[in-house]
Design a protein that fits this description.
This protein is an alpha/beta fold and 746 residues long. The chain folds into 3 domains: 232 residues, Luciferase, Domain 3 (Luciferase, domain 3); 204 residues, Rossmann fold; 143 residues, ANL, C-terminal domain (GMP Synthetase, Chain A, domain 3, 2-Layer Sandwich), CATH 3.30.300. The strands form 7 sheets. Strands 6-3-15-14-16-17-18-19 form an 8-stranded mixed β-sheet. InterPro entries: AMP-dep_synth/lig_dom (IPR000873), ANL_N_sf (IPR042099).
Length: 746
């Protein structure tokens, strides 16, 4: 009998563990992932189209969306426990140990096994519950979250989306202890949420106050910040009574300072521990786990507001997580070895989605060094050597620039000629058909490995990008130059991150792939923006329903009602569907538009995405228009190396004047030079009316930075704030007027 469940089942497989299968055997026998010629397509459901809406599209792999991978895999807790049973001695979570005295990371990664991870998870959960239940600052008669601590063991079986536990808050960069805490919460039916550095104290205070979280588990370096936060806002943070450091407190602070810090914490009503202390307590008081049900709330993931408004808490269940894992198992390419590098922030659901899947398959998961950043990423990758990784476009564009400088833009004429020939040939072959690897024996076995080694990509087989648009030209180049599969995904916090990603070797990169097996999509007409579901390539607002969809926004009925109608989540993204394949493109945002003086409406994301996808010299784009002006201006991020080359080749600026990065920026912002650049990039954009093109620009290397508060941590532009930040430059551009000869078309 086939392991594949019937078409009308909620499950992908009939069973899993009972057959003695593990993930590798399922892959070896071709059960998962599904055939790219099937999973790479979506079909319209007959007879379900409504007036003003497109047909409903579902994965070609199934007629109705699936909810779970197999019986017994309905929660994150069950997924992790299953992997522990199947992979007890395999490496699970790997890190470079940090020396707080020398402030250096160990030269190699050390891993704990799945069995060790499970033991520590249990100890952490039991210790935390015991210490909270016996916390001297607990006021159960006055504070609801404290009463929930007392009732948790008795009440957890009745939890659902309307009734959840007290909230555990995490506040740390990516590290093994983050994942350990996350799976601990899942195993003890505890709902969690996350803070992150870029939020700032105001938003952190808002989240802690809104959730009434009694406990924060954080980096050692955040301990003082959190104590001070309660000291400044004792009323709002009355529920906050326990602080656990992921790092050994004595190593972070030293004995004398720690003694004062413990007393300072007590003075504001906080008991301070480190994770080792909590685990030791848990080992003294053993108890069974408190496993969740599918409807138990797994996490409240706060989305970043793009208008400066307060973030919304997206309520996601254990079932949402299980569905997300089922989706990935059906599509993630087969790998001989599972080594995942966990780089994107775990505070966002995209990386948690990827990590949950990695734990399901028994992967060896590596984490950045303490204090790691994009600048130290390659150092970590060279040591850990992952086989797959998720990352964001800006990291991949930096890789692209570095590789081009070493290959097709090399100072060596021989290297330049050789790499240009091989990479172009490989790109041409990969563009002939879906799933075409474009094999070139000499390049794949001699030249590409050298490039991969320089990035720590020695074993890399596949990467996926998300969170922001990426140029198809970047995908084409990296896929060929590094001889790896490259997918672009789509998803939102409200859909437990990814609901689709393109096949790794897509003939024409740029799509988000076809919708996956756990979700269905359709489009809503947007006539005021010029998008119609009746067009040859239907376009409109992307609506999503399925097993990964969130239930509601935390304590925000008004926003929930706006977002969910008739079971469909209204994403706010504008998509275009290719009816031949069912694959879709994200082309715009519904609400992001402004009216120019001549009455034309412009949607800036459409403009920005077009410029970024058509011009590899650009790394960022912020399009701006005003009701009293009849043309657009733009703040653009440019690649330093490509800009230097452009100035030399197109503007006749001598190389000797472009040695310093600041000199390159100064030259490209000169009106004559930026006019030449603007005319060039305007030639490359397709599908824009004249009034949608930029007519003056201001350039920096990375104008849209988190520290400027002009983008969210998920790289969405905060338009009102960005307009205010660049007010001086915008005024100067409008004062200069149009610098191109193109007249606005009405």
């Amino acid at each position: 009998m086939s392991l594949i469940a019937p078409a009308d089942s909620d499950y992908v497989l009939r069973d899993f563990d009972l057959k003695g299968y593990d993930i590798r055997r399922l892959q070896a026998e071709g059960i998962i992932p599904f055939d790219p010629d099937v999973i790479g397509y979506a079909d319209p459901k007959p007879g379900l189209a409504r007036k003003g809406y497109s047909a409903v599209y579902h994965s070609r792999a199934n007629k109705r969306f699936k909810k779970f991978f197999a019986p017994g895999y309905e929660t994150y807790h069950k997924i992790v426990k299953s992997s522990v049973r199947r992979n007890p001695d395999s490496p699970a979570l790997a890190l470079r140990k940090y020396d707080f005295q020398t402030k250096t990371s160990a030269p190699e990664y050390e891993a704990i096994t799945y069995a060790e991870m499970d033991e520590k998870k249990r100890a952490l959960g039991l210790g935390l519950l015991f210490l909270l239940q016996n916390n001297p600052f607990k006021r159960s008669g006055e504070i609801e979250a404290h009463a929930k601590i007392d009732s948790h063991v008795a009440e957890y079986p009745s939890y659902n989306t309307d009734k959840m536990s007290f909230v555990v808050t995490l506040f740390a960069q990516n590290r093994a202890e983050w994942v350990l805490t996350d799976i601990m919460c899942a195993s003890y039916s505890l709902t969690n949420t996350a803070l992150y550095d870029t939020l700032g104290p105001g938003t952190s205070l808002y989240i802690l106050s809104l959730t009434e979280s009694p406990v924060v588990i954080a980096l050692g370096i955040h301990v003082k910040l959190l104590i001070n936060l309660k000291k400044q806002s004792p009323k709002e943070l009355a529920s906050f009574i326990c602080l656990v450091s992921m790092d050994p407190l004595a190593e972070v602070f030293g004995a004398e300072e720690l003694k004062k810090l413990v007393q300072e914490a007590k003075s504001v009503g906080i008991m301070l521990y480190d994770m080792d202390q909590v685990c030791e307590v848990g080992r003294i008081f053993p108890h069974d786990e408190l496993p969740p049900k599918p409807e138990t709330v797994y996490t409240i993931s706060f989305t970043s507001g793009t208008t400066g408004s307060k973030p919304k808490g997206v309520v996601l269940t254990q079932a949402n997580c299980a569905a997300g894992v089922a989706f990935l198992l059906a599509q993630v390419p087969r790998l001989d070895e599972f080594r995942d590098f966990c780089f994107l922030p775990l505070a966002h659901i995209f990386q948690r989605h990827c990590t949950a899947n990695s734990l399901m398959v028994g992967a060896h998961i590596g984490f950045p060094q303490l204090g790691g950043s994009p600048l130290t990423l390659v150092e970590d990758l060279k040591i850990f050597k992952p086989t797959y990784m998720s990352n964001v476009p800006r990291v991949f564009t930096k890789f692209e620039a570095a590789i081009k400088n070493a290959t097709i833009n090399s100072d060596s004429a021989l290297a330049k000629r050789l790499f240009t020939r091989f990479i172009n040939t490989k790109m041409e072959r990969q563009a002939t058909a879906d799933n075409e690897v474009g094999s070139l024996w000499l390049y794949d076995h001699v030249l590409a490995p050298k490039l991969k080694k320089a990035l720590g990509f020695d074993n890399m087989k596949w990467t996926v990008t998300g969170l922001a648009p990426i140029s198809p030209l970047t995908v084409k180049f990296l896929k060929a130059a590094l001889n790896i599969g490259f997918s672009q995904g789509y998803g939102l916090t409200e859909t437990f991150a990814g609901i689709s990603f393109s096949i790794p070797y897509e003939k024409k990169p740029g799509t988000c792939g076809a919708v996956g097996i756990t979700t269905e999509i359709c489009l809503r007409d947007l006539p005021s923006l010029g998008y119609s579901v009746d067009a040859d390539f239907p376009a409109g607002e992307l609506l999503i329903r399925g097993a990964q969809n969130f239930s509601h926004y935390y304590k925000n009925d008004e926003e929930t009602a706006k977002a969910i109608k008739d079971g469909w989540f209204h994403s706010g993204d504008v998509a275009r569907i290719d009816p031949a394949t069912g694959r879709y493109y994200i082309i715009d945002r519904v609400k992001n538009f402004f009216k120019l003086a001549q009455g034309e409406y412009v949607t800036p994301e459409k403009v920005e995405n077009n410029y970024l996808s058509s011009n590899s010299i650009l790394t960022q784009a912020f399009a701006h228009g005003e009701s009293l002006q009849d043309y657009l201006v733009g703040v653009l991020g440019v690649d330093e190396a490509k800009t230097r080359d452009f100035l030399i080749k197109n503007c006749r600026v001598p190389a000797s004047a472009l040695i310093a990065p600041e000199a390159v920026l100064e030259q490209i912002n000169k009106i004559d030079n930026k006019t030449i650049l603007l005319e060039e990039i305007n030639k490359n954009v397709q599908g824009l009316f004249g009034y949608e093109k930029l007519h003056n620009i201001y350039l920096e290397y990375e104008p849209l930075r988190l520290e400027r508060d002009v983008i969210t941590p998920t790289v969405k532009i905060k338009r009102p704030i960005a307009a205010k930040f660049f007010e001086k430059q915008i005024k100067e551009m409008y004062k200069q007027g149009r610098i191109t000869g193109t007249k606005t078309k009405l």
